């Protein structure tokens, strides 16, 4: 699917609405193992992107993603800002170097690797990477959007069984087990929202 200006503007609006609807839930998850502000932080970041949606949508997709990443870094507090910002910026840079989006899977793989380096984390550390890695596998398999969304949601839920090894939650040790990671949850929400849009618009 070619993502044009109208598609990108609508996706930004949909992602902003999804985070807004789930703001309290995300903050509740964060209250159990963190500072309790993940929902508010994510809402602030998506609101900032939404405010610039028309200018962003006028850019080529790689440039738009880089701009989105910059906005997220500047507006999302805590560890999530640099991680989400890195994901978007590196995805845009990788796509730009590849001349657009002929190999989205390879660009996504590079972006996720950059997030892992930035957060100094990996699989099983109870972070948003525990959603991104399974999603990457499904994208490499060229799975349908519905399958990617299911994978993301299942992966977020699976963080309940993990002990946090990064971020503020790591200080809780074993007490972090039994709680879904808020970053993984917001990542799954955004992934599912994008996948739903792609499915409804008959993307492969």
Q: Tell me the Rg in angstroms.
A: 16 Å
Number of domains: 1
Tally of DSSP helical segments? 10
Helix content: 55-70%
Q: Looking at the structure, what is the overall shape? A: globular
The structural class is mainly alpha
Distance between the termini: 7 Å
| CATH class term | Mainly Alpha
CATH architecture label? Alpha Horseshoe
What about the largest sheet?
none
Question: Element order, helices and strands?
Answer: HHHHHHHHHH
Beta-strand residue fraction: under 5%
Q: How many DSSP-defined strands? A: 0
Polypeptide structure, described:
This protein is mainly α. The protein has a single domain (5-200), classed as Serine Threonine Protein Phosphatase 5, Tetratricopeptide repeat (Alpha Horseshoe), CATH 1.25.40.340. 69% of the residues lie in helices and 0% in strands. The protein has ten helices and no strands. The chain has helices at 5-21, 23-33, 38-51, 53-57, 61-75, 80-97, 104-119, 129-140, 145-158, 182-200. α6 (80-97) packs antiparallel against α7. The radius of gyration is 16 Å and the shape is globular. It starts with a helix and ends with a helix.
């Amino acid at each position: 699917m070619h993502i044009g200006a109208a598609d990108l503007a609508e996706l930004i609006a949909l992602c902003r609405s999804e985070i807004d609807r789930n703001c309290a839930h995300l903050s509740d998850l964060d209250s159990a193992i963190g500072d309790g502000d993940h929902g508010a932080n994510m809402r602030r970041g998506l609101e900032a992107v939404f405010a610039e949606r028309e200018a962003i949508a006028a850019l080529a997709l790689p440039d738009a993603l880089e701009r989105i990443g910059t906005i997220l870094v500047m507006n999302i507090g805590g560890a999530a800002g640099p991680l989400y910002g890195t994901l978007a910026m590196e995805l845009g840079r990788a796509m730009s170097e590849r001349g657009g989006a002929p190999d989205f899977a390879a660009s996504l793989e590079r972006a996720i690797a950059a997030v892992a380096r930035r957060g100094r984390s990996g699989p099983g550390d109870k972070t948003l990477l525990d959603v991104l890695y399974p999603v990457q596998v499904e994208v490499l398999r060229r799975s349908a959007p519905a399958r990617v969304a299911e994978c993301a949601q299942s992966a977020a839920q699976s963080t309940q069984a993990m002990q946090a090894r990064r971020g503020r939650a790591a200080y809780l040790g074993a007490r972090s087990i039994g709680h879904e990671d808020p970053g993984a949850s917001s990542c799954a929400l955004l992934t599912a929202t994008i996948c739903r849009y792609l499915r409804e618009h008959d993307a492969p």
